[in-house]
């Protein structure tokens, strides 16, 4: 009888272990992709009921930590205290880093101050919304009226009306229009 009980326990035990499902380790990984997706977004930032900036994008992805990605590009418009459109900034891709309250544009980045007739091209730019500053450590090309400036690194107010090139590389007087 003792042998029979032992055999029965072995059979039942092997049956229980053989029926257990194997777990795929990939299925246990924590999801770190977007938690939310939106299309055709339009955000307005205002101060004292006056529009200060507008952000639009064809697609926005939002992550659990509050960061956002704009994989199809981002378009930001800056307005004067009087509400006049002053500066535009577009980029092929955009990112918002929530912990730093910082926007980053990359790809073909173009900034244009419509009032001062200035424009900038670079491959990456950062906008610190709280400090109202834009900056980059990348190569930039600036057209300031009839002058073309090249350099590496730039700091400016977010209207791109008061800028400083960190490492100027050259300056060319232009006979005609636009970059």
From TrEMBL:
Q: What is this protein called?
A: LPS export ABC transporter periplasmic protein LptC
Which Pfam families does this UniProt record tie to the protein? LptC (PF06835)
Q: What are the boundaries of the region Disordered?
A: 160-179
| Superkingdom per UniProt | Bacteria
């Amino acid at each position: 009888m003792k042998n029979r009980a032992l055999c029965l326990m072995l059979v039942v035990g092997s049956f229980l272990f053989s029926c257990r499902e194997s777990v795929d380790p990939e299925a246990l990984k924590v999801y770190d992709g977007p938690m939310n997706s939106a299309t055709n977004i339009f955000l307005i930032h205002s101060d004292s009921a006056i529009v200060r900036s507008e952000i639009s994008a064809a697609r926005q992805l939002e992550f659990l930590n509050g960061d956002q990605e704009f994989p199809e590009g981002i378009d930001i418009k800056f307005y004067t205290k009087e509400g006049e459109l002053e500066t535009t900034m577009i980029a092929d891709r955009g990112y918002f880093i929530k912990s730093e309250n910082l926007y980053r544009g990359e790809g073909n980045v173009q900034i244009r101050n419509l009032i001062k007739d200035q424009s900038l091209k670079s491959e990456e730019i950062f906008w610190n919304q709280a400090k109202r500053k834009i900056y980059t450590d990348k190569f930039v090309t600036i057209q300031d009226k009839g002058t073309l400036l090249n350099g590496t690194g730039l700091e400016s107010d977010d209207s791109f009306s008061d800028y400083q090139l960190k490492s100027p590389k050259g300056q060319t007087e232009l006979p005609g229009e636009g970059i």
